[in-house]
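Page 47, continued from p. 46.
Same chain as before, 204 aa.
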Amino acid sequence: MAGRNPRWGAKRIRGELLKLGIRVCKRTIQRYMRRTSPRGDGQSWSTFLRNHVTWACDFVQTFDIRFREVFVLFFLDLRRRTILHAAVTYAPTDEWCAQQARNATMDRVPQVVVCDHDAKLGARFAGVFSSSGVRVVRTAIRAPDMNAFAERFASTLRREVLDHVLTLSGLLLPGLRPVSWSPATRSPETLTALPLVDRMPRLP
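Result:
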């Protein structure tokens, strides 16, 4: 019954069995349903990444020497684990994020962009990608695991860079531009061999 009717739950199946005169505990039905449950739609996450150009974007929050909030918006290529674009501001707005989306898509355009429900990534931000035929996928509320690669990079950036750098001004943060990142290559043995940041000319 579970195989032919994937939308039926254990309660519905138990009711159908009672009609046939078969008395079975609900937990027993759930145990057998787990054994026979199908494996999604047949496409794994790794297969999806191979078939699509997927980006993820998120904010990293830090503070300057005057304890003012500084926001770093970055775009991450999930296939290559490379930071494609990063920008810094003190007052992020939907219009500012939309401009950063235009800057990030000047030379290349993804097929899918994964982001959260942050109000700063609003209608104008999504409209920039939608006008280029890009699908914007919003993660569920309070579900950081749905954008795990971006969250992992943000924590790595804080732990290995921002926690050791005293920022005089948010405008100086582009001087510490992330180049590439991968969990597989960030083992303790390679932390000193693989630089996380690339020194760029500082803004005036």
